[in-house]
Write a structure and sequence with these properties.
InterPro entries: GP_PDE_dom, PLC-like_Pdiesterase_TIM-brl. The protein is an alpha/beta fold and 323 residues long. The chain has nine helices and 13 strands.
Length: 323
């Protein structure tokens, strides 16, 4: 979610002591595989998530859309056109239709989904449709668009960050609908290792009304208010999830992260084109005391964390930010 602010450190008026006992402040430094690591594997697929967790990722980040028969599926875009061999809006298709598609069809290693290249550019194309065998240890269905229920059942003991999507940024009704479906799903599970977020603040509010026990990361307007005036975000907020930069201006600074920590919030940082993503950038965020890094390159981040011996959830090490 974009943060359009003039000042990069939140106002000092955010003076409350913060969320007491926020467990996400202790869960650091996390390798949060963004969409499973979309530069290394087809985004939001079971293959990507299994691969990232196998490498050592501490948390998986994913997005949800809903189908015409109200099944939540793990998918970033409202349309299947860019990533699959199909066309159309997810919302206009049944789960069966969506699940049959090849989610690796346009995946190019190092570039995520890039349609229109020569067929040889797509090494994983056709696994879902049984035109080539899957890699050892995987199934053809791992290259499909999965249901959220399937992902949550597969990763019962892996923390999950879920972003509520909609059919377009301006279609608030679709965000609210997906928030309601998600609340119903998560209320059945009674998990304490899930964070829910959305670009759309109304979706976050609606979700919290229906599932008040699940931790939140606030939406765009709430983040903007926190930066500009120190207004605390919605009750239930456990993490602030921010870009590295906004319009070339640094956002994920050591000063901002320290202020957020003082207010009781963990800080998770994403790239998504806001800044070059590489080992140097990961190093900078670790040194700035980010609690989690949403990595499109989870293997690169994992190697760096291992090389530096950085403290991880359940894995002792060195914390460069320990007081």
């Amino acid at each position: 979610m974009a943060v359009a602010v003039a000042g990069l450190v939140p106002s000092a008026s955010a003076s409350a002591s913060g969320e007491s006992g926020n467990p996400w402040l202790a869960r650091r430094v996390m390798n949060m595989a963004h969409a499973g690591g979309e530069s290394e594997a087809p985004a939001d697929t079971l293959y990507a998530f299994k691969r990232a967790v196998g490498l050592g990722a501490d948390m998986v980040e994913l997005d949800v859309q809903s189908t015409s028969d109200d099944r939540l599926v793990v998918m970033h875009n409202p349309s299947v056109d860019q990533t699959t061999n199909g066309t159309g809006l997810v919302r206009d298709m049944t789960f069966r239709q969506v699940h049959a598609l090849d989610a690796a069809y346009n995946f190019v290693p190092g570039r995520s989904a890039v349609p229109g290249l020569p067929p040889s550019s797509y090494p994983l194309r056709g696994i879902r449709t049984h035109q080539q065998a899957p890699p050892s240890g995987y199934r053809a269905s791992d290259f499909a668009i999965p249901s959220l229920n399937k992902v949550l059942a597969t990763f019962r003991h892996v923390p999950v960050n879920i972003e509520i999507k909609g059919t377009s940024d301006t279609d608030t009704a679709s965000f609210l609908h997906n928030a309601e479906l998600l609340a119903t799903t998560l209320n059945r599970l009674h998990r304490s290792d899930i964070i829910v977020t959305s670009f759309n603040d109304a979706a976050i509010t609606r979700f919290h009304e229906l599932a008040p026990g699940i931790g939140l990361a606030p939406g765009q307007q709430a983040l903007l208010n926190y930066f500009s005036s120190g207004t605390r975000p919605i009750e239930g907020t456990v993490a602030l999830q921010i870009p590295v930069n906004y319009n070339g201006m640094p956002v994920a600074t050591k000063e901002f992260i320290a202020k957020a920590h003082a207010d009781g919030y963990a800080v998770h940082v994403w790239f998504s084109g806001t800044a070059p993503e590489n080992q140097d950038a990961y190093n900078t965020l670790i040194n700035a005391c980010a609690d989690g890094i949403m990595a499109a390159w989870p293997q690169v981040l994992e190697n760096l964390l291992d090389q530096r011996g950085i403290t991880r959830p359940g894995r002792p090490g060195t914390d460069p930010c320990q007081n």
